[in-house]
Amino acid sequence: MLATVGAAAAPVGLAAVRWQDPARAAWGVDGPRPVAALLWYPAADGAAEQDWQVPPFEPLPVAVGAAPAPGRRPLVLLSHGTGGSAASLGWLARELAAAGYLVAALNHHGNTAAEPEARLEGFVAWWERPLDLRVAIDRLLADPDWGPRIDAGRIGVAGFSLGGLTALASAGAQPRWAAWSAACAAAPATPGCALPPEAVARWTWADVDALRRSEGFAPSLARADAELHDARVRAVFAIAPAMAAALAHAPLAVPVEIVVGEADDQVDLADLRAWDQVPSVSVERLPGVTHYAFLMGCGLRGRLFAAAICRDPPGVDRARLHADTAARARRFFDRELAPR
Prior knowledge:
Keywords: Hydrolase, Lipid degradation, Lipid metabolism
Protein name: Peptidase S9 family protein
Number of strands: 10
GO molecular function, one term: 1-alkyl-2-acetylglycerophosphocholine esterase activity
Structural class: alpha/beta
Largest sheet: 10 strands, mixed
Strand order of the largest sheet: 3-4-1-2-6-5-7-8-9-10
Number of helices: 12
CATH topology: Rossmann fold
Distance between the termini: 14 Å
Radius of gyration: 19 Å
Organism: Rubrivivax gelatinosus (strain NBRC 100245 / IL144)
Mean pLDDT: 91
CATH class: Alpha Beta
Strand content: 15-25%
Pfam families: Hydrolase_4
């Protein structure tokens, strides 16, 4: 039973899990691809929450390592944006967990601030991300501790920016490498065709072209048009999905809700209009909201030294935006992941 409005929310627990995918190689080192996640969940009564800090973001109250509250719960997987981390969407993960969900927030290998080194492969090979979600679902359902706590018929995905594309891909909005390449060759100034801000300080398009031709990248490139739809996913909530030009606007088998800011300069807002015509997809546009407003709120040091991701334009209240968006996501998942 999910928490209801007006009821006292359970304390939220936090645990780290780490798996490997032997079918795929890690970037730059020998061995299988790591698949890591933070699990947010309703903790048992009496669990003590303390501030959990991941600079430059504001702390969140969680009970690290606490025992989970009893019961089987719907599962929501969460995919971060380019160069981000599971922590960067902690505002959404915590609110869903407080409402009764088990939330598995991924750290996508090679493309996450949670690792000591970013890899160009991780920025380019977006098709590896939905495969991470698939592995996470497999491992969680098979886990002797977490598996019995999950209602396998009630699984959703949410994601921000490139994580939004990841979420849509898991619902059957198949990204196509060739289609994206052709679209960007015709209109290179389109948002989603340029290197993201997180990559331009490290690499150029010449580096990307060299990577595409490299022998070591070939196994991943061969998966670029692999089928990414996961039939276990029943609903998708996409926040400011990037690289929409890579997606086919085909009817989807599950309901999708998209939330995007009208002042977002990293999302192809014109392309998103095509989603208005797709059955089972709804798009909500928020006036004045920019791309990074959907990241965790920042402390003073973050606002001073990480202004690009921490400062919002006048009139945008990030805390209110997060509260409203988390409530919207909860209503969406409460409806679409309701017991059948």
